[in-house]
Every structure is written in C-alpha cells, then in structure tokens.
Amino acid sequence: MSDYEEIRGNLIGMLEELNDRLSKITDDVKHTAEPPEKDFAEQAVQAENDEVLDFLGNRARTEIAQIKDAIARIDSGHYGICQSCGEPIAAARLKALPYSDLCIKCASQQGC
Predict the structure, then answer these.
(1) 3-state secondary structure 27-64
(2) Which of 18, 73, 80, 89 is found 20 to 30 A from 2 (Cα to Cα)?
(3) Does pLDDT of 45 surpass 90?
C-alpha cells in the first residue's frame, strides 16, 4: 500500500494542477479579464480560440474524473486491477498512466 500512497500523492498533485488549469481556461472563455472584442474579425478569432479552450477544458474535466476515480480505487483497495479482466495492471503502465483502470491488453482491445 505504501507504493500506492506515493501514487495517490502524485494523483492529488495532478488533480490540483488540472483544477487550476481548468479554472484559468474557464476564466478565459468567460472573458473575465477583458470583454469580448467589438471588431467582427477579432470576434471570429476569439470564437475560434474559445472553441480550442472549450476542447481543452473538456479534456481536463475528463482527466479530473479519471484521477478522482483512481484515488477512490486506491482508497478502496481496488487500484492496480484491470476493470475489464480483473488481472493486475503492470507497474510500468501505472507509472506512465497512474489513473489507468485497464491493463494494456484490455486497453488495446478497447482502442484506448
């Protein structure tokens, strides 16, 4: 369990970083620092930027959910076990993707 406590700490750090990033993205999309441009061409550029930020925000939300799930699995004692086949997830995979809930075999079959 001590190995997983270190991973848990890393996951919490990742979670804090993502929450901070998501907050900044949300502020940018809401244009809290500056109002939207009045010029039509600039509005178009701003709209494109908002689409990119929205995509990044959605990715961050997805990753936040995965990290929270991984922390819950650590806390419940189910971390490191494939959610599909029930086999242990390789330590190298957990090191590379600490919130992974699938072993490499199941992930490749599901196209993840």
Answers:
(1) HHHHCCCCCCCCCHHHHHHHHHHHHHHHHHHHHHHHHH
(2) 18
(3) no
